[in-house]
């Protein structure tokens, strides 16, 4: 390779190296910015919920309604500015749980109420219920860890609350919520299996017998043909 070719190759390598560094630095800066925005959303939701619950004086009874309204607001805001609803809902859910903890509420119980509110709010806004439930579950469990709550009890409340609320929307919603929740929080597969009603865990397919029903009517058909 001639000196000119060596110099040219070296220049290309240096340019590519700079491009890689520029992209890396840009991504790091963006991620830092996203983390700061997420932290701001957490704090906003936290202070909003804290003030609201202090005003009502009924933490256990109002967590569901406050969660629904706050998450509806977050979803509408995400739609207006075009930001990711998943990140927004997760941050809001985390803030709601921290707000409950700030006023001395039971975070394990609040986790279930939060998920009910999230599912109801998503349904009213017309957003994907399962995705919202998953994001809310992640935020709730993260907050439980922050305040030193019982993760196992909270996980059961999360699944139970989400499935109960999704049950009012139909079996398809229950399945969608359950599938995504299982992947959202470690250990939720076993919890979902324990909480999900047996009749909803598996629905009879074509030709399968439902609960309390005899499998098909072969005998009757055969006797008719005979």
Would you write up a description of this structure?
This protein is mainly alpha-helical and 226 residues long. The protein has one domain. Helix content is 81%, strand content 0%. It has 10 helices and no strands. Helix 5 packs antiparallel against helix 6, helix 5 packs parallel to helix 7 and helix 7 packs antiparallel against helix 8. It is globular, with a radius of gyration of 25 Å. The C terminus is likely disordered.
Quick gist of this model?
This protein is mainly α and 226 residues long. It contains ten helices and no strands. Residues 197-226 have low confidence and may be disordered.
Q: Stretches where pLDDT falls below 50 for ≥5 residues?
A: 197-226
Query: What is the beta-strand fraction?
Result: under 5%
Total separate domains: 1
Tell me the distance between the termini: 91 Å
Give the fraction of residues assigned to helices: over 70%
Number of helices: 10
Radius of gyration: 25 Å
Q: What characterizes the major β-sheet?
A: none
- Average predicted confidence as pLDDT: 75
Number of strands: 0
Order of helices and strands: HHHHHHHHHH
Backbone structural class? mainly alpha
Q: How would you sum up the global shape?
A: globular
């Amino acid at each position: 390779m001639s000196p000119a070719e060596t110099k040219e190759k070296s220049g290309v390598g240096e340019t590519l190296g700079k491009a890689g560094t520029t992209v890396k630095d840009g991504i790091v800066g963006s991620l830092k910015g996203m983390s700061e925005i997420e932290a701001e959303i957490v704090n906003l939701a936290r202070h909003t919920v804290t003030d609201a619950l202090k005003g009502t004086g009924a933490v256990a009874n109002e967590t569901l309604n406050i969660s629904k309204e706050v998450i509806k607001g977050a979803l509408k805001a995400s739609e207006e500015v075009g930001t990711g609803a998943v990140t927004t809902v997760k941050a809001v859910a985390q803030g709601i749980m921290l707000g409950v903890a700030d006023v001395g509420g039971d975070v394990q119980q609040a986790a279930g109420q939060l998920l009910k509110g999230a599912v109801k709010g998503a349904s009213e806004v017309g957003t994907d219920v399962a995705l919202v439930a998953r994001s809310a579950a992640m935020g709730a469990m993260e907050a439980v860890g922050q305040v030193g709550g019982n993760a196992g009890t909270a996980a059961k409340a999360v699944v139970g609350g989400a499935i109960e609320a999704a049950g009012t929307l139909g079996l398809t919603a229950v399945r969608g919520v359950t599938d995504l929740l299982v992947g959202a929080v470690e250990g939720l597969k076993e919890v979902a299996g324990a909480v999900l009603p047996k009749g909803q865990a598996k629905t009879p397919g074509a030709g399968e017998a439902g609960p309390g029903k005899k499998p098909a009517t072969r005998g009757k058909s055969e006797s008719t043909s005979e």
